[in-house]
């Protein structure tokens, strides 16, 4: 596998499938995979390049070919720009790249920005239900990040990139951060005139929260639905029976719950430090939960409405089973 990758990187063939087939044929001719070395598919025929400009030194070469004019563009940089980290977006054959959309502002800075409410919580905590209720009460637009990704997967089932993302989600892992952010940005750019937008199910960890603020905006309010692990498991099993979502299988459910436990406390603390988050006990009846949420939203975003704010401290017992390790302040800073 290493040899094949080295060959692909070295030659960058127009038809990688045909190239790999030829390599496999060469393996047979050599007598099996044990005969393959790391550089088997990298041609040893490397011709020595002639000396630059008849053998002149590097210093004299640059003195001759690099203009002394201070306006020459390559003299503007003290160092080369950093190499971008490899990502799922880096294969141009997979899909359109995220760089195109990163060039644009999501919201027109000359116009009032819609109010942004993020609703987060564990899988099965009722994020979708409460987000829809919030959007309906205040006339906001509702955006489900999970639904955005699922629709994209269904509409581009033959695309290699999205086929890979579908497998990632089905196993209970988070979709690639840059892909998720790009999908959110594209959706928000379609609804720039909304008074407010409720985003359901994002962010899932601190890195996603920081990326959202850097590329889109700082949210006006974050609603966190805290729910016990046992209740989450019960709700997910029930939802799997009713809806049959591919990411509600047993293995994926266990993985998603584990990811949630690992990321929930640092994420909530991150937003607490910014004074943006309000937490609610989501183990109760959904109407009781929504009453507290609406009171808090009235108080936080609409000063003319008199209402009491909901709780803003996180009770870790609501998301941690007995025996789970609770992140300390040092753990959070280290992460």
UniProtKB/TrEMBL annotation:
Lineage, top-rank taxon, reads Eukaryota
**What PROSITE patterns does the record tag this protein with?**
ADENYLATE_KINASE
| Localization terms from the record | Cytoplasm
Does Transferase show up as a keyword for this record?
A: yes
**MF GO annotations:** AMP kinase activity; ATP binding; nucleoside diphosphate kinase activity
Q: Which UniProt keywords apply?
A: ATP-binding, Cytoplasm, Kinase, Nucleotide-binding, Transferase
Q: Tell me, in one coarse class, where this protein mainly resides.
A: cytoplasm
Reactions it catalyzes:
a ribonucleoside 5'-diphosphate + ATP = a ribonucleoside 5'-triphosphate + ADP; AMP + ATP = 2 ADP; a 2'-deoxyribonucleoside 5'-diphosphate + ATP = a 2'-deoxyribonucleoside 5'-triphosphate + ADP
Give GO cellular component annotations, separated by semicolons: cytoplasm
List its EC numbers: 2.7.4.3
One Pfam match, given by its short name, reads: ADK
CDD domains given for it?
A: ADK (cd01428)
What family does the Swiss-Prot or TrEMBL record give for this protein? Answer: Belongs to the adenylate kinase family.
Function description: Nucleoside monophosphate (NMP) kinase that catalyzes the reversible transfer of the terminal phosphate group between nucleoside triphosphates and monophosphates. Active on AMP and dAMP with ATP as a donor. When GTP is used as phosphate donor, the enzyme phosphorylates AMP, CMP, and to a small extent dCMP. Also displays broad nucleoside diphosphate kinase activity.
HAMAP family per UniProt = Adenylate_kinase_Adk
Q: What is this protein called?
A: Adenylate kinase isoenzyme 5
Task: Report the source organism.
Answer: Buceros rhinoceros silvestris
């Amino acid at each position: 596998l290493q040899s094949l990758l080295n060959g692909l990187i070295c030659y960058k063939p127009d038809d990688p499938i045909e190239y790999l087939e030829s390599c496999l044929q060469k393996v047979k001719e050599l007598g099996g995979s044990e005969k393959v070395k790391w550089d088997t598919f990298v041609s040893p025929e490397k011709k020595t390049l002639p000396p630059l400009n008849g053998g002149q030194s590097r210093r004299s070469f640059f003195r001759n070919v690099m203009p002394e004019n201070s306006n020459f563009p390559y003299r503007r940089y003290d160092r080369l720009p950093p190499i971008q980290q490899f990502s799922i977006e880096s294969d141009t054959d997979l899909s359109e790249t995220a760089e195109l959309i990163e060039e644009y502002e999501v919201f027109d800075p000359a116009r009032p920005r819609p109010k942004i409410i993020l609703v987060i919580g564990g899988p099965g905590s009722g994020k979708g239900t409460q987000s829809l209720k919030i959007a309906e009460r205040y006339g906001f637009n509702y955006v489900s990040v999970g639904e955005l990704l699922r629709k994209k997967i269904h509409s581009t089932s033959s695309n290699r990139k999205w086929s890979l993302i579908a497998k990632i989600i089905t196993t209970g892992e988070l979709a690639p951060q840059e892909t998720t952010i790009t999908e959110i940005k594209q959706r928000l750019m379609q609804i720039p005139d909304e008074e407010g937008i409720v985003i359901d199910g994002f962010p899932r960890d601190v890195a996603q929260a920081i990326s959202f603020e850097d590329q889109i905006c700082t949210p006006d309010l974050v609603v966190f639905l805290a729910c016990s692990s046992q209740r989450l498991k019960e709700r997910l099993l029930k939802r799997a029976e009713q809806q049959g979502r591919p990411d509600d299988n047993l293995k994926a459910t266990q993985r998603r719950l584990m990811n949630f436990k690992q990321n929930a406390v640092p994420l909530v603390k991150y937003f607490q430090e910014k004074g943006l988050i309000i937490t609610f006990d989501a183990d109760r009846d959904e109407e009781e939960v929504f009453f507290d949420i609406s009171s808090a939203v009235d108080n936080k975003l609409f000063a003319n409405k008199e209402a009491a704010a909901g709780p803003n401290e996180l009770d870790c017992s609501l998301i941690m089973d007995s025996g789970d390790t609770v992140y300390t302040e040092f753990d959070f800073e280290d992460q």
